[in-house]
Amino acid sequence: MAYKVYVDGQEGTTGLRINEYLAARQDVEVLRIDPDKRKDPAERSRLLNAADVAFLCLPDAASREAAFMVNNSNTCLIDASTAHRTAAGWAFGLPELAADQRDKIRDSKRIANPGCHASAFILAARPLVDAGLLTPDSLVSATSITGYSGGGKSMIAEYESSGDPKLNSPRPYALGLAHKHLPEMMAHTGLKTAPVFMPIVGKFYKGLLVTLPLHLSTLRAGARAEDLHEALAARYAGERFIRVMPLRDADTLAEGAVDVQACNDTNRVDLFVFANDTQALVMARLDNLGKGASGAAVQSMNVHLGLDEGLGL
Ligand SMILES: NC(=O)C1=CN([C@@H]2O[C@H](COP(=O)(O)OP(=O)(O)OC[C@H]3O[C@@H](n4cnc5c(N)ncnc54)[C@H](OP(=O)(O)O)[C@@H]3O)[C@@H](O)[C@H]2O)C=CC1
Ligand SMILES: CC(=O)N[C@@H](CCC(=O)OP(=O)(O)O)C(=O)O
């Protein structure tokens, strides 16, 4: 028997991509809402409650509304929005976060999918905290270069239709230093202070690269770049979707720059450590619509249902 799956927000950027992932699967029956009724609360409620798994690909307020509509104990919600990522009762949908995270995702009917910048930041920083290279009191900063699809339908339209010349060059944003991913970055790394975080959106559709610049002298006494690399490699050994590149990856150094788009159309995360004797750059690259959103959501569904984690990805 096929699992019934409903995508609330099926016409949006994340919802469309989830539907692409599900289209080829025989073990899933996708429940579709009549396009005229896609914002009709009664019809959404009916489908949410009929689903074994419902993906919420909606703005935060509509996701909260959808969570209140579910009045049965069977439907598992996987929320792509920011609404529930640090909320009590919701499992964080990042299976690689910690040894017990898959159990949490399997056991919970409420799963919050991580934000795209946050996924990359957390996957880079958490093993460093767990290894004692950073401590909960460490003060860190990070940049994130991202494609414009991260801003959903409205940003895609702005980049593809407005012709505004200022969009031709990269744009640092979130200048109020209060980006919406900061709470989940702290909650799931254990860092007590928010990183100074500067995302930069560029004129390319998708692809994302988070960088943590680190002075080795601010890490655990005597820490070397090898220790950073070893902490990442040890944590992610055997993880099918995470690739820890060799320390000071020779191919990338030969290229002279990192290709932000090289994980596009995959559910993969690539981690890099570049360093000299006193400083390091720890980087995480992903597809913001793959492991940064829709791919991660499908991966969490697979884990929740006890299926092969990579099914359809
Ligand atoms: N794009 C990305 O890379 C990522 C996005 N996310 C998050 O995923 C969620 C969806 O984002 P994204 O797909 O990019 O956004 P989009 O703006 O592309 O799509 C959102 C969809 O939700 C629909 N919608 C809005 N309100 C309602 C409602 N009350 N009932 C039903 N449908 C509604 C919209 O309808 P309409 O078509 O009429 O506008 C639209 O189709 C957001 O919370 C976003 O923050 C998370 C990670 C990455
Ligand atoms: C380019 C761009 O604007 N990107 C979005 C993040 C997209 C994402 O991860 O989204 P949610 O947290 O909304 O789920 C931003 O920085 O706000």
UniProtKB/TrEMBL annotation:
<feature type="active site">
    <location>
        <position position="116"/>
    </location>
</feature>
<feature type="domain" description="Semialdehyde dehydrogenase NAD-binding">
    <location>
        <begin position="4"/>
        <end position="105"/>
    </location>
</feature>
<dbReference type="InterPro" id="IPR010136">
    <property type="entry name" value="AGPR_type-2"/>
</dbReference>
<dbReference type="GO" id="GO:0003942">
    <property type="term" value="F:N-acetyl-gamma-glutamyl-phosphate reductase activity"/>
</dbReference>
<keyword id="KW-0028">Amino-acid biosynthesis</keyword>
<dbReference type="Pfam" id="PF22698">
    <property type="entry name" value="Semialdhyde_dhC_1"/>
</dbReference>
<dbReference type="InterPro" id="IPR036291">
    <property type="entry name" value="NAD(P)-bd_dom_sf"/>
</dbReference>
<keyword id="KW-0521">NADP</keyword>
<keyword id="KW-0055">Arginine biosynthesis</keyword>
<dbReference type="Pfam" id="PF01118">
    <property type="entry name" value="Semialdhyde_dh"/>
</dbReference>
<keyword id="KW-0963">Cytoplasm</keyword>
<keyword id="KW-0560">Oxidoreductase</keyword>
<protein>
    <recommendedName>
        <fullName>N-acetyl-gamma-glutamyl-phosphate reductase</fullName>
        <ecNumber>1.2.1.38</ecNumber>
    </recommendedName>
</protein>
<comment type="similarity">
    <text>Belongs to the NAGSA dehydrogenase family. Type 2 subfamily.</text>
</comment>
<dbReference type="InterPro" id="IPR050085">
    <property type="entry name" value="AGPR"/>
</dbReference>
<dbReference type="InterPro" id="IPR058924">
    <property type="entry name" value="AGPR_dimerisation_dom"/>
</dbReference>
<dbReference type="InterPro" id="IPR000534">
    <property type="entry name" value="Semialdehyde_DH_NAD-bd"/>
</dbReference>
<comment type="function">
    <text>Catalyzes the NADPH-dependent reduction of N-acetyl-5-glutamyl phosphate to yield N-acetyl-L-glutamate 5-semialdehyde.</text>
</comment>
<comment type="pathway">
    <text>Amino-acid biosynthesis; L-arginine biosynthesis; N(2)-acetyl-L-ornithine from L-glutamate: step 3/4.</text>
</comment>
